[in-house]
Specification:
seven-stranded antiparallel sheet; four-stranded antiparallel sheet; single chain; 450 residues
Length: 450
Amino acid sequence: MKSVAYCALLSICMACGAADAEPPEAPVTREFALAQPFPADAVLGGIFVHDLDRDGRMDFVVSSEGHVGAYGHTGETLWVWKGNIHLLEYSHHPSVIAGNLDGGDDEEVAFLLKDFSLQILNAATGEAKYPLNDLGRPVGIGIANLRGLGDRDIVLQYDLSHLRAIQSEDGKTIWETNEYKSIEHSPFRQADLDGDGLDEIAGAALIDHDGKLMHDWVLDGRNESMDSIVIADIEPGGPLEVALAEQRGANSHTDVVNSQRILWRALNPWNWEDPDKLVAGDFDPDRPGLEVFNRSSGGDGVAPRGDEEPFVEEEAPWVLDARGALITKYYVNDKKPEWWTGHGLEEIFRIDWDGDAKDELAGKERHKVGAGAIVDAISGEFQAIFRVNAVRFYVADIEADSREEVIVLDEAGRVKVFANPAPNPHVPKPSPWKRSEYRRQKQNWNYYSP
């Protein structure tokens, strides 16, 4: 029997963030060394997965200053391109696209050079195929299916409102518009928003596959004050939703819209705390639709409980249901392992770690090259730990076992894959890669909008 003093001490320790049991450490299931440099302090460049050689398995693409590297499913180096690559000015953005760009038998990868030409290579061999020139000076690029031909179109972004769509086989313009509204720290996002089989462009305004504005609603305020964007089927059925995080002090809302209407705008529950980074997932399967996790800005508002560590920039997340109602709010510092940084989580992804009906969060330590974790979005409890020094943190389904894996690029220049070591007892699910919003966001992602 525990003493009264012991129980009181345990209660105090748990309130200040020291858990009574360390979350289990997940094992590395695969790792390999990069054949290219990747400095631990690099802000630009990143990683994503794509089936480069069409063998049905996901491979790895890594971009860093002056380098683009392709690595096979088991980690073998396929090729490394060295030269004057132009990395996009978005933290951790891969700056590379991949798809069947010319309609042939192979996959291609493409990236901008310093002269703003688009270099297109054979994805499996790295052999140069052809360039696209006269593109202007785009600040963002992404693959889309606008003509119904598959991954044969490229969208170029020039500023917060100017988009141009081109044919990837020859660079000819499909359409151009200045009616788009991008957000502050992330480029456009694209997916089949309305279920017509073609891709649309998501932001604080939605652009149809033909380049026209999709709606007559207007979000109040300044779209450049938005800080994160995610596409998901938040309200079940009908068109996909776009969730956006406002960064407007006491007037910070989480906005959810689709091609038909503004579904809701939920004011932050702390009086002044930016939603900052968003994740949408089925965090509570007993509720209809998806829930929206709001990470909180961790220092910009009034939620932090002190001006010294670990409270100076502590995060105070909250979770909204599919209708925008508050489910819960809490402090990460009350949930984390004792050694975890007091600054909370960053680079957060929705992850299906268990294969069951409930989604989890995956993220790394904020403001440092540090460890990663699986976290219950509703309770905030840490469920598994990845003991790494992560420079890049990424989530995708690469093992085809109806679950997703955590992929880490560490400070030693090694890619480490963490898969759930337990057998999956659940009924297999359809591959998430069949969903357009999954495919597009796993390639066109960055620090603010994983």
